[in-house]
Amino acid sequence: MPWTRFGRKKDIPGGLWKKCESCGELIFHKDLEKGNQVCPECNHHFTLLGRKRIQLTADEGTFEEYFKELLTRDYLEFHDKIPYPQKIERTRKKTGENEAAITGTARIHGIPVALGVLDFGFLGGSMGVVVGEKIARLVELALERKLPLVTFTSSGGARMHEGALSLMQMAKTCGALAKYHQEGGFYISVMTHPTTGGVTASFASVADVMIAEPGALIGFAGPRVIQTTIRQELPPGFQKAEFLLEKGQIDMIVPRNELKVTLARLLAYSPWAQVPEDFLRDQEEEEQEEAAQEAEGAADKN
After folding, report:
1. CATH number of the domain residue 76 falls in
2. Cα distance between residue 302 and residue 283, in whole Å
3. What pTM was estimated for this model as a whole?
4. Does residue 205 carry a pLDDT above 70?
5. Which of 16, 43, 120, 192 maximizes the CB count within 10 A of its CB?
């Protein structure tokens, strides 16, 4: 063991601290967990794993998973550094998930919904045949049961290991959503950091309401690829959520700790939403309280 002028150097256990990707601040891991992976210094929203996202969004004990039995096949016999089936198997053992999409039904503040979440920890949340199939089946389930639909995306795009088959999922998911919309379905897409490639260019961007988390990177090709291709300097904040809101690409930016109640408020507008009376009553009381505070503030100014 090495020595210092203060005596023997003590080993510091790993995993206690995490460096913020935005401001560089060192954050105690437990503090980051308590804050739902949001930097307390600069409000940077770290990428959440799929199960954690469901835990924060769905009412406790209400998530029922569907289509978990769908497993990826190596149609193209793709070889990278290791064969594709081995890569999938390693990722399954590492993450505990069968694929990058987790789909099912849940309740959000008592409102039944169909819920789909992409897990960035599973091959970067990339969309292959199984991911596309699970999203399409989720949309069909929402249509069959007359449920509003909510998806959370965090993805590097289409999965290169599956070639054109992965690109076909863009058409499949959009086709299912077109039928869902024609029947009167209500769909909310929440794009988190990062949402890129074929996911952005398909089901993530054809919703009735498009929400982003603060600072999320959202786009098709990455900024460096675009800048290299067009040989021009890109505007500040290009492809960040705030830039896209300004340009009208998304409808709103909602901080993580406000997402659940915001989703419930929006879902209440769906003709298919089964909204509990107590939620409506709580929202009415909250609106009255906010109106009273605004009136009080205006009176103080006068």
Report:
1. 3.90.226.10
2. 29
3. 0.88
4. yes
5. 192
33 CB-near residues (< 8 Å, 6+ apart): none
Same domain? For 20 and 74 the reply is no
Question: Each residue of 31-42: pLDDT tens digit?
Answer: 888 888 888 888
In a domain, 296, yes or no: no
Q: Which two tokens stand for residue 268?
A: 């209440």
123 and 37 co-located in one domain: no
The answer to whether residue 130 is domain-embedded is yes
| 88/20 same-domain check | no
- pLDDT tens across 97-150, in order? 999 999 999 999 999 999 999 999 999 999 999 999 999 999 999 999 999 999
Please name the residue that has the structure tokens 């709580």. Answer: 282
pLDDT of residue 118: 98
Pair (244, 123) in one structural domain = yes
